């Protein structure tokens, strides 16, 4: 398996490249619009063909590169079925793996950050999107987020994976790259240890994070698989490609 963890510094987003060495086919998880050329250059350098893009959820802090990559590389857009995106070429559901060459991706329905959020398990690692971050988790105060639902998604689904499972999140704001299920079960200050649901809900209710400055444009744009919507003010047009100051957890 060929694997790369790629970072977009403005929105602090990780994009993950997984490639099959036998077939030369590849996927990108959570690609970001400003870095589509970087991603295609990396695929070319590795002699890989992009077959699918996968987003973990409808993002509020950046525009996905899914549509742009489909236009440029003839890849297909795979997205959780629950979001019912007309622009998706393939819908994903828990219980139905996605096969790309020798790669098997298992979707895991992990709502709570958004109501359609999915993580993707691949062998000994899991790509957790915004549901589980490194010693944190995604916020639950927009896009039908719900703290009790996120608590159950993490405890009943992600924390039941083997302790040695490597956790790759969609964001990190502190320069960290990777964690594990065992570490998050022990050290996550919001969800780890024996913290009960009521305490987690209280923490999430008091995060006092600013309203994401681009959410009103990012969400409709991402419901179109990565198209800047009409009506973006001139002073925000740059955020169609560069989105900052919009922490997700």
UniProtKB/TrEMBL annotation:
User: Domain Metallo-beta-lactamase spans what residues?
Assistant: 12-171
- The answer on whether this UniProt entry bears the keyword Metal-binding reads yes
Keyword list (alphabetical) reads: Metal-binding
Stored InterPro entries: Metallo-B-lactamas, Mito_Persulfide_Diox, POD-like_MBL-fold, RibonucZ/Hydroxyglut_hydro
**Looking at the keywords, is Transferase present?**
no
Protein's UniProt name = MBL fold metallo-hydrolase
Can you name the source organism?
A: Thioalkalicoccus limnaeus
Give the organism's phylogenetic lineage: Bacteria, Pseudomonadati, Pseudomonadota, Gammaproteobacteria, Chromatiales
């Amino acid at each position: 398996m060929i694997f790369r963890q790629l970072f977009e510094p403005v929105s602090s987003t990780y994009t993950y490249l997984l490639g099959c060495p036998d077939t030369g086919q590849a996927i990108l998880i959570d690609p970001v619009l400003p870095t589509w050329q970087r991603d295609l250059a990396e695929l070319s350098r590795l002699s890989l063909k992009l077959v699918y893009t996968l987003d973990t959820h409808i993002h509020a802090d950046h525009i996905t590169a899914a549509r742009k990559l489909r236009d440029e590389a003839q890849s297909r857009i795979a997205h959780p079925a629950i979001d019912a995106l007309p622009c998706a070429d393939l819908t994903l559901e828990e219980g139905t793996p996605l096969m790309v060459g020798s790669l098997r991706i298992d979707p895991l329905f992990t709502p709570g950050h958004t109501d359609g959020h999915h993580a993707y398990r691949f062998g000994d690692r899991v790509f957790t999107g915004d549901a589980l971050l490194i010693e944190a988790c995604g916020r639950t105060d927009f896009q039908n987020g719900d703290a009790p639902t996120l608590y159950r998604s993490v405890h009943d689904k992600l924390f039941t994976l083997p302790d040695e499972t490597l956790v790759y999140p969609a964001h990190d704001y502190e320069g960290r790259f990777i964690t594990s299920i065992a570490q998050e079960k022990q050290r996550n200050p919001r969800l780890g240890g024996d913290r009960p649901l009521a305490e987690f809900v209280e923490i999430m209710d008091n995060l006092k994070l600013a309203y994401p400055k681009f959410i009103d444009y990012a969400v409709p744009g991402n419901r179109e698989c990565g198209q800047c919507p009409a009506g973006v003010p001139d002073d925000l047009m740059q955020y169609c490609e560069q989105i900052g100051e919009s922490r997700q957890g």
